[in-house]
From TrEMBL, chains A, B:
Record-level GO BP terms: thiamine diphosphate biosynthetic process; thiamine metabolic process
Record carries keyword Kinase: yes
Gene that produces this protein: thiN
Full protein name: Thiamine diphosphokinase
Pfam families in the cross-refs: TPK_B1_binding (PF04265), TPK_catalytic (PF04263)
Listed EC numbers: 2.7.6.2
Organism: Apilactobacillus kunkeei EFB6
Spans traversing the lipid bilayer: none
InterPro entries: Thi_PPkinase, Thiamin_PyroPKinase_B1-bd, TPK, TPK_catalytic, TPK_catalytic_sf
Superkingdom to which the source organism belongs: Bacteria
MF-aspect GO terms: ATP binding; kinase activity; thiamine binding; thiamine diphosphokinase activity
Kinase found in the keyword field: yes
UniProt keywords, alphabetically: ATP-binding, Kinase, Nucleotide-binding, Transferase
Chain ranges of the Thiamin pyrophosphokinase thiamin-binding domain: 145-207
Length: 215, 215
């Protein structure tokens, strides 16, 4: 399993402790200001992506002195810089798992943009690789079929969020569903594992699953 | 214009300064722990809603000593406590504007649940009254037709997020759209007002509009 981590330019206050302590496995791609933070933590990203316009000269020097592969990129209507980083992690670096950090909190339009990535056809093949992570939440996405997920340590709650109409079954959690027809995007929150594993299946589109904990 | 404010039980760290300083106009409904914070700020909510199970005796006493209308409510499959507060603000208190505070940050399943409220048919008649507010974001919802919005002081960015397929026109912002067919929920972020007002129209479902600022 090859893991690539993305550190994007959102707020730093929702980072999980493991990120702050430098305990995340895998290589890194930095996006915009994420690159500065990575280098300051002693992590050299494999690739730095960004338009770098919002940085001052000293910040850009931190990056250019520490990263051999810098890709200056102006966001266009086809890909945002986070989307480009995802594409590189998957197509070029052949990642099996892509963790995205610093993508929550702050501007909600940015978060919703990242949250909805998984519904875009151009990312359909890689949605199961994506995890958006902060200190209270791990967000994953699934495509139709049968799935098994494992409880993440300390994460107490389990939410199922159909991103579209679908028939959904949740086989083994505190609240179960049996081939239930969900008409539109909806958040089934505050479910819980009743063991270490949960099995579920659905028939269309994308299902978002969030494991979370209280503060 | 009658404004009713809801303080729900989410994180307090994303409150706008105006809330912390007690400068929000209108009466209040408290939901769960939001009631404790209101009383501690010297605000007596008109109505307190919650299951109050997660509170200790001293917290509940703070509420019962200060609020005459306490409605103990166990969330059911039809309404969450926040949804019930919305319904009371609209149906019973006849609010024209319903501001929701403390509904962002923390558990993302809770936020998505609040964010998707506007797509539920049972709330379709009141979605234009709802605003979800934190220190960097004001989220509003609109139903089909022509609309005018006014720039909120200090809010630099303007995002349009169709919650479903629709034809969308943005008449006067930095990035315009002319009867553009949007196939699925998508976040058009980082647009900006080019004056004090922005006019837009669309033909189906619900459109989310977010005014936001950087930290």
């Amino acid at each position: 399993m090859k893991t690539i981590n993305l550190l994007v330019g959102g707020p730093t206050d929702l980072w999980p402790d493991s990120l702050r302590q430098g305990k995340i496995d895998g290589d890194w791609i930095g996006v915009d200001r994420g690159n500065v933070w990575l280098v300051q933590m002693g992590i050299k990203p494999l690739i730095s992506i960004g338009d770098f316009d919002s940085m001052d000269q000293s910040e850009f020097e931190i990056i250019s002195n520490n990263v051999s592969d810098i890709r200056t990129y102006n966001p266009d209507k086809y890909y945002t810089d986070t989307q480009l980083a995802l594409k590189i992690a998957s197509d070029e670096l052949k990642a099996d798992v892509i963790n995205i950090f610093s993508a929550t909190g702050g501007r909600i339009d940015h978060f919703i943009s990242n949250y909805l990535l998984a519904t875009e056809p151009k990312f359909r093949d890689i949605v199961e690789k994506i995890r958006i992570i902060d200190k209270q939440n791990v967000i994953q996405y699934f495509t139709p079929g049968e799935h098994e997920i494992t409880k993440i340590d300390m994460m107490h709650y389990l939410a199922f969020i159909p991103m579209n109409a679908m028939h959904l079954s949740i086989h083994d959690a505190v609240y179960k569903l049996d081939n239930y027809y969900v008409e539109r995007p909806f958040a089934y929150s505050s479910n819980q594992f009743d063991g270490d594993k949960c099995h579920f299946d659905f028939d269309d589109g994308v299902l978002c699953v969030i494991q979370s904990k209280d503060a």
